Amino acid sequence: MRLSLLDRSRTRRGLPDSAAIDATVERAVAAERLGYDRFWVAEHHGVPGIASGSPAVLLAAIGARTTRIRIGSGGVMLPLHQPVVVAEQFLVLDALHPGRVDLGLGRSLGFTPPVRRALRRDVEDPDTFETDLVELRRHLDGTAEVTARPATGRRVPMHLLATGRGLEVAARLGLPVVVGGPILDSDELADALAAYRRSFRPHEDSRPRVTVALDVLLADDDATALDLALPEAWAMAMSRQAGEFPPLDSVADIRAAEWTSQVRRRVEASLACAVAGSPHTVRRRIEELAERSGADELLASTSTYDREAQLASDRILRDVVGG
What we know:
single chain; alpha/beta; TIM Barrel; eight-stranded parallel β-barrel; 12 helices
């Protein structure tokens, strides 16, 4: 199974947002050195806990600091952009970093009404996602009415971030999928992916391909790894309480904070779902998931407050998954 990283440019309490961007680039450099296959970045808007809203710009910087690792978006939210503009951005990236660029695509309109208003989008807008995907692919391969530039003569692979109905769209269009979230722990996972593979309609030479996006953290022992997972679990609990996804707090500050019974239940539920542990524990969980999903690739996506611990986790994971 191929192994890749998704970095969300998580902000950390007490540090400027720019530090999160620097950390993403440095993590990509380290990932290449460790032998990871891909390094992806995300698109989020107006979120205090996430610094990057522009995958193409960030990928240009990462590409300039690396030479081999594939770079991509996990993902560009297509409903927020015109297909031709996305095509132009990623064709420029492909010209700068030939043959290394992937275009992962999602359909989120933004987390909150103010963000959606700022993006000039509304949940009541017509759903043109599938037709926009087709148009985007035509711009990328040079068959659209308008030719997107620069024309590189190479194909920029498209991937669809998908669950449920998104898997059906990917199968119809012959696209590889990235699946994550609650579906990974559901009884429906194997059936949903079997239906995707069964109904897949190849586009040119494409074939069904599944990447599993999984929050995973490793340390020498289970207790230490669960401590590393605590900042994300705490941030998720705080977002449900305050309605805003916050920067990461240190484990020490979280332990010292006042925990309501509701927050404690939410944090404990998040930690129970986390793939966090020693190499032995995480290897077993990944093997179980690989068997259930038949995944071609693992996209590891967790962050933690301690950057050095995050990089150490990346090193251990590379050893656990075929290093």
